[in-house]
Amino acid sequence: MNKVTLISQNSMASYVFTMIFVNKHYDKISSIFIIDLISGESISSKIKNLRRLIKNSSIQFAFYKFFETQFYMFVLKLFKFLKKIQYSKIEDIAKSNNLPVYKFKDINDPEFIKQINSTNDCNFSIFTTGQILKKSTLDNLKSYPINCHGSYLPKFRGAAQYIWYQVYNYKEFGITFHNLTHEIDAGDILYQKNFQIPENISCFYLHYLIAKNWGLEFDLFINDLNFPPNTEAQDHSQSSNLSLPNSEAFKKLKLQNKKIIKISDLKKISYDLKQFQHN
Question: In this predicted structure, what is the pLDDT of residue 59?
Fold first, then answer.
């Protein structure tokens, strides 16, 4: 059996993928690593990295990411308090399934690589984190790294595809599982698929659907996953690269009457939470 290690973070997308995957394939997981949302060993270094995020995108996007994570995690805690679900964070998922869990502040911490490499029965590492791995970190990783991406590569390399899909009025969104390399989203492709974007959808719920389909499609894909995996090189001449959403992107969303989040999103995700945590 090909076992995997999950490298996750307590964010909406990573939690959703982890919840679905563990629910279906807990016996194929050797361990779960939880990485902080923002790298840095101290509060001051985290603030510095947060300022860098705002500088490279916009205050609107930084606020949205904070709100998205806090809103979703609040919903999880509320539902757990009401005894509608079992897990309000990834640590709960791991503990409930007797899976070893390790926490690291920085994904490029040498101790992270040392710990993950000590897992002898693991052939693959699946990443759903926002922190970027350095080339030196990847070079020292023994298992085959797979990244979960929110577009049909090579189109839309980069982050926050769910914002740009809405800005550009796309009718489809994609997902890709690809080899994680030091070049952003440029690795060989293992699996990819396109989906229709429902009408009048919010950015938040579109992001949720991307993560949900990561989990559902990996459920199908893992049964055909061999080591080493079958891959297909990307056509780099067809690539397009995304920047982080700037203030102009949010202005366009407002002009198009595209919603960042809707109250009705809560009802949709709550139904899924109960389904996936009780199957």
Answer: 84
Which residue numbers in the chain have pLDDT < 50?
Answer: none
* Amino acid (1-letter code) at residue 208: Y
The partner residues of 232 in beta bridges, in order of sequence, read: 189
- Give the burial class of 226: count Cβ atoms within 10 A of its Cβ; 0-12 exposed, 13-18 middle, 19 or more buried: exposed
Angle at 99 between CA 206 and CA 23, to 5 degrees: 40
Residue 220, CA distances (Å) to 4, 21, 67, 174, 216 in order? 15, 10, 32, 16, 7
- Is residue 68 exposed (0-12), middle (13-18) or buried (19+ Cβ within 10 Å)? buried
Residue type, 105: K
pLDDT of 273 reads 82
16-61: pLDDT as tens digits: 999 999 988 989 999 999 999 875 555 665 566 667 666 767 788 8
What value does the mean pLDDT of the chain take?
89
10's CB contacts (< 8 A; 6+ apart) are 34, 37, 69, 73, 89, 90
Residue 217 pLDDT: 95
**Distance between CA 149 and CA 184 in Å, rounded?**
11
Burial state string for 151-170 with b = 16 or more CB within 10 A and e = fewer than 16: bbbbbbbbbbbbbbbbbeeb
C-alpha span between 123 and 144 (Å, rounded): 6
Cα dihedral 126, 130, 135, 140, rounded to 10, equals -40
Which residues does 277 contact at the CB level (< 8 Å), separation at least 6?
A: 19, 23, 85, 86, 87
Question: Which structure tokens are listed for 222?
Answer: 């893992």
DSSP designation for 121: T
